[in-house]
Hints:
The complex is a heterodimer.
Chain A: H1 6-32, H2 35-42, E1 55-58, E2 61-64, H3 66-91, E3 107-110, E4 113-119, E5 125-139, E6 145-161, E7 164-178, H4 193-196, E8 210-211
Helix pairs in contact in A: 1-2
Chain B: no helix or strand
Amino acid sequence: xxxxxxxxxxxxxxxxxxxxxxxxxxxxxxxxxxxxxxxxxxxxxxxxxxxxxxxxxxxxxxxxxxxxxxxxxxxxxxxxxxxxxxxxxxxxxxxxxxxxxxxxxxxxxxxxxxxxxxxxxxxxxxxxxxxxxxxxxxxxxxxxxxxxxxxxxxxxxxxxxxxxxxxxxxxxxxxxxxxxxxxxxxxxxxxxxxxxxxxxxxxxxxxxxxxxxxxxxxxxxxxxxxxxxxxxxxxxxxxxxxxx
Amino acid sequence: xxxxxxxxxxxxxxxxxxxxxxxxxxxxxxxxxxxxxxxxxxxxxxxxxxxxxxxxxxxxxxxxxxxxxxxxxxxxxxxxx
Lengths: 244, 81
């Protein structure tokens, strides 16, 4: 890689901070279920040049294109917030079934640690990877809240769009989820009911566009996988993608 | 070159939940203060009531609090924590 000028090094440092800020915004928006707001603020534009190749991925597949990401990550979440409120309202009649109560009982924290962020030499794209220890609190089918510790890794690609760093691909690699106070090695207490759909109905049209086992949760018979880490690169064609 | 030191002037801790490691915060339906903690002497009690205080409860909606900082030019153009 060519030797960088002082100005280029300063720009690189600024870009790394801005990429981290964008990813941190994802964590805060996700934490309160404001997925549609997140999509509008920090994801690539619906009418932009990266819309068709945007991607949201979990252990079992990819949703491709910003419209599909919006359907799955945004609109399905909105629908679930409404459904959850209906259930909670039945259990707690004092919680009225009105719009401002949508999201009741839910709370998510996917913190971001151990970052590796690389900015492309051409300054057009960036890659990042994080550990994400956290918790997921959701409303179960019976309307009662469910609590889980959840540990994941994130891999994400960013593009500079209209002068700002925007999420292009995000891949959530789930390692384990466990009931508080239990061991994740206990099969009865572990497993990710949120991503497997035990608590949240996932209609057929919301299945991944590319169904593929991209990553395996921990199990006694699973060999740990090293998720690809960002390495210095000049242009995106020279590196790998966290998308499909 | 002049070096400007930035010092912390406001520090707001937003409590969310506090439970024993083997407890579920979703069972903590009652007042979060009932969980206990270090008693605060009278002369060190807060000067005013907590603001933006939204500890988790299963019957409430979590809020985007605090809101993420946005780029700003001078202090009078942004909000205070």
